[in-house]
Give the backbone structure.
Amino acid sequence: MSFYVGEALAGDGNEVAHIDLLIGAKDGPVGNAFASALATQSAGHSNLLAVLAPNVAVKPATVMITKVTIKGARQAVQMFGPAQAAVAKAVADCVADGVIPKERCEELCIVCGVFIHWEAASDEKIYEYNYEATKQSIINAMAGTPTADEMVEQRESAEHPFRGF
């Protein structure tokens, strides 16, 4: 497979976390997207590497992309603080747990879309929910879940929490 796709939602309120991610080889389409994300910055969309701490980037290399326009310093600090720490810890834990094979860490990279609501207030919840959603999205990606059968089975009963009706 050229790449894996994962998605997960965790938490509630303005701190809700919704992660969309791609995992794939550096020399494939995910690698191209990774490089493009780092090389193409724009106002309100500052993409960044996931790091456990300065000088301790995670493996596989992970770029975080904003899913909404960052509109102020508070939201930017939340992206570069609790959200970045949460994504990095989730990636590291998935490697430690064997979800991502350690021997593939140098060949793979991750593109991780992160949502930070402009009215989010609790850094603790931002961390907790983004950690949970990132870890689950990696597990889903690597396991290929939901399967097509699971998706079809739930197509009538699934309820999207933000559909608006």
